Amino acid sequence: MKVFKGLFYKELKLTKNWFMVGIALLILGIIVGLGLTKYFNEPNIFAAIAVMILVGHGLYLPAYLLTSLNIEGQTQLWLHNPNRGAVLFLAKLAAGFVLYAVSFFMALVVALWGLSHAVNAESLFSLTGGPALNITLIGLGITLGTIFLGVWVLFYWSLFHSLKKVPFLRSIRWPIVIGTWLLLTAIGNYVSNLSMYQKMKNIGVIKLNAYSIEFKAGKTSASAGFVDNAELSIMNGIIYTVIIFAVFYASVWLLERKVEV
Q1: What is the pTM of this model?
Q2: Is residue 68 a contact partner of residue 19, using CB atoms and an 8 Å limit?
Q3: Per residue in 53-62, is it b (16+ CB within 10 Å) or e — as a string?
Q4: Residue scoring higher pLDDT (26 or 166)
C-alpha cells in the first residue's frame, strides 16, 4: 500500500498541469456558453453547451492516460522500476479517476445550473422517471464509459510499445495497432449480434422507469443521455467486467515482459 500511495501522489504531481489545463478549458467553455447566450439572447444555448461539456467527460480518462503514458515514455521514469505493472497502471487509473471526479462534479453542477435557467426547462430536460435516478444513471454511464475506454488505452499503448522489441515490426507499429483495433471491433460486433449473446443479456434484467433527455437551442438541437424504457442487465455487466479485467491484465503482461519505456 505504501508503494501504491507513493506512485499515486507521484502521478498527481506529474499531471497537475494537465489537470489545470482541463479546468481552464472547462471554464473557457462556460464563458463561451454565457457569451453566446447573452449575444443571441437565448439561454438554451448555455444549457446545451454545459451538457456537451458534461458528456464530453466520457473521454476524460483516456485523454488523461495518453498524456501520462506519453510523459513516462519521454522521461523514462519507469526504466528499471521494481514495482509490478499492475501497481503502476492502477496508480495511474486511480489518480486519473480522482481528477476526473473533480472535473465531472464541476461540469455536473454547471449543467444543472444551466438547465435550471433555461427557457421552458421541462421541454429541454424531460424526465419521465425520478430526477435523482436519471442524473445518477447519466453520471454512472459516463463514468463507466470513461473507465472502459481508459483500460483499452492502456492495452493499445502497451501493445504499441511492445512492438519495439520486434525489429521487423517496429516501423509498422501504427498499422498493427489500428488493425488490431479493427479486428477486435469486428469480433465484438459479431459476438454482440449472436442470438446466444442476446439471450445472455436478458439474464438478470432490471427495468427502470422510462426517461428521455433532450436539449434544444433555438433552431438547432443537441441530444445526450439514455434511451426510453431503460434497462440494466446484470449479466451484461458481468461480461463487461470480465472484459475489463482481461484487457487490464493483458496490458500488464505486455508492460512487464515486452515494453521498454
Answers
A1: 0.81
A2: no
A3: bbbbbbebbb
A4: 26
